[in-house]
Design a protein that fits this description.
By secondary structure, this protein is mostly beta strands.
C-alpha cells in the first residue's frame, strides 16, 4: 500500500492512544515522599490494559531510590500489544513549603514489546522491539489538607533500540528521544491516610516525523514509531509510613 495511504489509515485508527508502535512510554509520576524512611507503592492501569507498578523509598534525608515495571497481558491472538518493561531510578527531593514538594530522578530501563493491530483501511501491521532507556525527570507536587495531592511531572527519555522490526523487515531507527509530561491527581477515598486513588493524564511525544520517500519501504514504520501517544490511567497508591487519621 502506498505510504500516503497508510499513514492516514494509522492516524485515523487512533492507535497512538495506546502507545507508539513498539514503544511503551512509562508514566513520569511524581513521588510524594517527603521524609527519611517514607515509602510509597503505586499500581495503575492504562486505557489499553497495560499495568504499571512502582515503588519509591527514602533511605536518607532528601534521597530517593525506586524501581518500576509494566506489563500487558495478551487478550487476543489476532491483535495485541505485549509489553515487558523494568526500570530503576535514584534522585532526591526537597520541600519548598509545607505543601509544595520538588523531586528529581535519573534512571535506566529495558523493555521488550510485540504489537499487532488492524489498520483502518485494511491490512495488518506488527512491530517487535527490544530497547533500553536512559531518562531524567523532575516534578512538583502540591499536598492538600484532605490527604490528596496534585502533581506535574516531566521526563526526558533517550531510547536506544537493540531490535526494531515490522512484520517484514528491520527498521533503521536506532535512537529517539521522548518528552513525557504527566498531570497526576490523588484523592483520599476515606480509607485512612495510607491509601489514595490516582488519576493520571499526559502525553509522550518526540520529534515531528518527516514525510519520507514514498518508495522507501521502511519510511512508514520509522515515522509511526515516533508518533505521540496519550497517557491515561487509573490507579491506587499505598503509603505505609503514614498514620491513619
Amino acid at each position: 500500500m502506498p505510504l500516503l495511504l497508510r499513514i492516514p489509515g494509522a492516524l485515523g485508527s487512533l492507535m497512538f492512544l495506546a502507545g507508539c508502535g513498539a514503544y511503551a512510554p512509562t508514566s513520569p509520576a511524581v513521588p510524594m515522599v517527603e521524609s527519611k524512611g517514607e515509602a510509597e507503592v503505586s499500581g495503575s492501569m492504562q486505557l489499553n490494559g497495560r499495568v504499571e507498578a512502582r515503588g519509591v523509598y527514602s533511605p536518607a534525608r532528601h534521597l530517593l531510590v525506586g524501581v518500576g515495571g509494566s506489563t500487558r497481558p495478551n487478550f487476543s491472538s489476532s491483535t495485541f500489544f505485549r509489553v515487558q518493561q523494568v526500570e530503576a531510578m535514584a534522585g532526591g527531593y526537597a520541600k519548598l513549603s509545607e505543601q509544595v514538594l520538588f523531586s528529581g530522578m535519573l534512571g535506566a530501563g529495558a523493555a521488550r514489546t510485540n504489537r499487532r493491530f488492524q489498520e483502518i483501511l485494511g491490512g495488518r501491521e506488527q512491530y517487535q522491539a527490544r530497547y533500553s532507556t536512559l531518562f531524567g525527570q523532575g516534578g512538583l507536587g502540591w499536598q492538600f489538607d484532605n490527604g490528596g495531592s496534585l502533581s506535574l511531572g516531566y521526563r526526558l527519555t533517550a531510547v536506544r533500540f537493540r531490535r526494531l522490526r515490522d512484520e517484514a523487515q528491520d527498521l533503521p531507527l536506532q535512537r529517539m528521544s521522548r518528552h513525557e509530561i504527566l498531570l497526576n491527581l490523588r484523592h483520599n477515598p476515606g480509607w485512612g491516610a495510607q491509601w489514595q486513588t490516582q488519576t493520571s493524564i499526559g502525553i509522550s511525544a518526540g520529534r515531528r516525523p518527516g514525510d519520507g520517500a514514498d518508495d522507501d519501504p521502511t519510511a512508514f514504520g520509522v515515522q509511526y514509531i515516533q508518533l505521540p501517544s496519550f497517557l491515561v490511567s487509573l490507579g491506587l497508591v499505598w503509603r505505609p509510613g503514614l498514620r491513619n487519621w
